[in-house]
């Protein structure tokens, strides 16, 4: 399977939270607006033979709407991930493939050993803690015995986060820095992320943050006819599961 499919869905490569402990929105995030970011991504995924730095664009609205576009050297889209209330899809234009999942929450948890939830992905991209932005430093209990250990800087912003399973094995490590004020809220300048279950490392460098009045994105799986013409529609969860053990396929 191509490495872009799990990467674009989990980047946020990737990130933490559990359905039983959904982060509470801060006052600035309770409205219906979405966040938009321009960024660059440095990706290391040895399991898929991938090491690259690429430009990207991100639009998200909690708890379940995300659009991430990874671009190639000439600026064209290499891969796009999109979620909405109807499901999730990963579009791979070069391969003319469309990977679709009706339950993105379950697909993310299957791929990461239960460390990630969809709203947790969105929260951590925004620089928020998995058990609510007001969570204290130290261990935050999650479901099924997992623990999220977090630290903050002197201004109360997240500095590090580690999610471990019941045996103490690392499921996720994240670190933030370079915070900047945007639209009345603190947003990260850099997010470093490591996902041991996927053998994936991501460094996101955010160039800019801004808010939108809405989320002006239509996911590929919501297009008339079930997707773009000429694209093979496949199961996303099956592709993610195959990618954990199968041979790499370089795009």
Task: Characterise this structure.
The protein has 251 residues and is mainly beta. 13% of the residues lie in helices and 41% in strands. It has helices spanning 4-10, 104-111, 118-125, 236-245, and strands at 34-45, 50-61, 65-71, 77-84, 87-92, 97-101, 138-141, 147-152, 158-164, 170-177, 180-182, 185-187, 190-195, 200-212, 232-235. The strands form 2 sheets. Strands 7-8-9-10-13-14-1-2-3-4-5-6-15 form a 13-stranded mixed β-sheet. Strands 11-12 form a two-stranded antiparallel sheet. Helix 2 packs parallel to helix 4. It is globular. The termini are close together.
Summarize this structure as a short list of keywords or feature phrases:
single chain; 251 residues; mainly beta; 13-stranded mixed beta sheet; two-stranded antiparallel ribbon; 4 helices
């Amino acid at each position: 399977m191509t490495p872009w499919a799990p990467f674009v869905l989990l980047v946020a490569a990737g990130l933490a939270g559990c359905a039983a402990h959904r982060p509470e929105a801060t006052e600035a995030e309770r409205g219906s607006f979405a966040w938009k970011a321009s960024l660059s991504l440095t990706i290391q995924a040895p399991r898929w033979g991938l090491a690259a730095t690429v430009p990207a664009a991100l639009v998200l609205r909690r708890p379940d709407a995300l659009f991430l576009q990874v671009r190639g050297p000439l600026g064209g889209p290499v891969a796009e991930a999109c979620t909405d209330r109807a499901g999730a899809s990963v579009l791979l234009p070069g391969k003319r493939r469309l990977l679709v999942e009706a339950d993105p929450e379950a697909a993310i948890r299957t791929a990461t050993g239960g460390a990630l939830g969809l709203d947790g992905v969105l929260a951590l991209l925004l620089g928020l803690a998995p058990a609510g932005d007001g969570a204290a430093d130290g261990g935050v209990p999650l479901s099924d015995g997992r623990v999220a250990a977090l630290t903050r800087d002197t201004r109360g912003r997240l500095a590090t986060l580690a999610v471990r399973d019941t045996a103490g094995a690392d499921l996720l490590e994240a670190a933030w820095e370079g915070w900047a004020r945007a639209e009345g809220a603190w947003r990260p300048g850099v997010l470093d992320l490591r996902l041991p279950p996927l053998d994936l490392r991501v460094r996101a460098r955010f160039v800019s943050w801004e808010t939108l009045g809405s989320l002006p994105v239509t996911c590929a799986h919501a297009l008339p006819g079930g997707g773009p013409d000429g694209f093979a529609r496949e199961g996303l969860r099956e592709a993610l599961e195959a990618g954990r053990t199968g041979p790499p396929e370089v795009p």
